[in-house]
Structure formats: structure tokens, C-alpha cells
């Protein structure tokens, strides 16, 4: 019986280590975010991310054991993100996980980062419990810095992609807009903060593909429109109207995301809804999704902030479910910048 796993997440810039049990209970979750190291470059520098992972991973592992008050003898497996992500960053987590699994003689499982996000709302700890169980089919909107897709989830490993962005991810649009108006990096949370005191109707931004029949989305037109507006307004006006710009830009993204989610719920008949991934930390999105859920009588699950941005707990939960289902990876397991073809049904 696999009761507890140690999990690593190093697919992008955050280094995260967790210990999770078979029910999704998070016994420890410790992360190192090194945004300041990347900020001068206006985006994530893969080489810096890899170096930070190799410095932080083992100290965080020790800290996780201390927090959970557990030792290696309590751990029955190691779960590690091996796809998709920055290749150098993935290698650091994977090589460390393999070495530890080999030396401790416990099974290893490579996890798809996006599957982790899909399962994140079903984690639990003293402060948070999910509103429904992972055993029921649900509709998921996964929104992060690299991906924006709608999925129908029918159980472990049964993830059907219903629609995706055709170009930029929603998080990427937030980040680029923040950079454009001088809010720095990482941008999503800063745009969110500014937007809270702004007028979402002050500036008109396009809502591309919102009336399109499919569940696909597009955010690159929004980015170009923002670029044009920002250069027309000039830096002084942009600075003075930063809150209204952020609120209007954010609302354009939220309108597209929520209208596609509503359409997907209608098409599939599903009323159990999950919103997950880094952008699900957005406060405007959380409020508007709750309102929509009440109106549509959905049961909505949005993970708390610590589980919606990149974290190892979600990797541990996905990993332990696969280990319990008998899946094992051997020492030939490699990293992949993309998902494996069998990960998602198109
Ligand atoms: O899932 P995540 O932590 O990493 C990836 O797998 O990409 O998502 C990171 C993305 C970034 O683009 C970041 O700007 C965005 O999530 N983000 C937000 C907020 N917090 C993080 N976007 C909007 N509002 C937020 N509060
Ligand atoms: Zn992520």
C-alpha cells in the first residue's frame, strides 16, 4: 500500500517540495519563489531557474520532513514533474528524484504538470477541503502562464481537451501587459492588485473568439490592442490610469474565460466545475466565477492560493493516485518540454 509520497515540482521557476498522503492530505508543502532573481530580465531565465532548483531542492526536502514530522521510513514513493516545462528545470527535479528513489529503494513516478493542476482542488489540509470528490466527472478550466484549456475529466488519466487558446496563454497575456505598463514581473498578481481599485469599463479591449462556436480562445489580439493603446496614451497617462487600464484589461480576459466555461458547461451538461492554475489566483475571477456558479447552480471548486499556483502537493497527489493504480516509471524516465501524446485526449 502506497500511503505517503514525497513530491518535487521544478517545471518552471518555483522550487516546491511536498509530502502528501493517498487521500490528498497535504502533510507538508514548502516552496522557494525566486521572482527577484528573474525580475531584472523581465521574464524567467531558464538557466537561473535551473541553478536555483539545484540549490533549493534538498534543503526544502529536509524542511518538508521536519514540518510533517516524518522520516524516510514513512515515504513509499517519489513523484516528480517530468513534463511539460523548461527542460533544464525539469532535469534538476528528475535527477534528484531518481537518485533518491534509487538509494531509498522506493518507486518513482513522473507526473504531468497539468494533471497536477487538474487535481489541485482535491487536495486538503487544516484550512481547506474540496467541495466535491475527485471520483465525480467534472469540467476544468486550467489557466496558467503556459497553458489555457478546458477539460472534461472523467477519472484518473481520463482528460479530454474541449478547447484551448490558439496563441498566448491567459497568464502570459497578464504578464506581458504588466511589463508593457511598467508593473514588472511576474505580472498577473500585480495587475490583479491594481485592478481592484479600477474601472473595468473605462477602456475597450477586444474579446477575441468570445462568440465563436468552439471552446477555443485567443489572447494575442488583446495583447496587440493593449500595446497600441499604451503607446497612444503615452507613459504619463498610462501611469495615471494604471488601475483603470488593469481593470479593463483583466475584465476582457475574464469575460472570455467565463463565457467559454459557461458554454462548455452547457455543451457537456456538467455542473461540477473546477478552475485551477496560477491565473485562478485572480481575485476578480474568483468573485465572478462564484457569482456565475450560484446563478447556474454549479458546484465550484477553486483551490486556495497555495494550491493553485505551481506547487508540489498537486504533483504528489497525482503521483500517489497513479502509484496506487500500479504505475511505476523506471530509471530511463526522461524530461519532456511537452505533454506525452497519451496524456490528454483531443
Ligand atoms: O500555474 P502557474 O503558477 O505556473 C505555470 O504553470 O505557468 O501560473 C503562473 C501564471 C503567471 O502568468 C502569473 O502571472 C499568473 O499565473 N498569475 C495571476 C495571478 N497570480 C498568478 N494571474 C492573474 N491574477 C493573479 N492574481
Ligand atoms: Zn503551473
Gap from first CA to last CA: 33 Å
Remind me, CATH topology of the largest domain? Nucleotidyltransferase, domain 5
Please identify which CATH superfamily of the largest domain we are dealing with: ATPase, nucleotide binding domain
* Total beta strand runs: 10
Number of domains: 2
Order of helices and strands: EEEHHEHEHEEEHHHHHEHEHH
- Nearest-integer average pLDDT: 96
Q: What is the percent of helical residues?
A: 40-55%
Rg from alpha-carbon coordinates: 20 Å
Ligand identities = 5'-O-[(R)-(carboxyoxy)(hydroxy)phosphoryl]adenosine, zinc ion
User: Structural class per helix/strand content?
Assistant: alpha/beta
Major sheet attributes: 5 strands, mixed
Q: What is the CATH class of the largest domain?
A: Alpha Beta
Shape: globular
| Name of the CATH architecture of the largest domain | 2-Layer Sandwich
Low-confidence stretches: none
Number of helices: 12
The strand line-up of the biggest sheet is 3-2-1-4-5
Tell me the layout of helices and strands:
Layout: E1 4-9, E2 15-21, E3 26-32, H1 35-38, H2 46-68, E4 77-83, H3 87-104, E5 108-112, H4 113-119, E6 138-143, E7 148-153, E8 159-164, H5 170-180, H6 188-195, H7 220-233, H8 235-240, H9 242-268, E9 272-276, H10 283-296, E10 299-301, H11 305-308, H12 312-324
Parallel strand pairs: 1-4, 4-5, 6-9, 9-10
Antiparallel strand pairs: 1-2, 2-3, 6-7, 7-8
The structure holds 5'-O-[(R)-(carboxyoxy)(hydroxy)phosphoryl]adenosine and zinc ion.
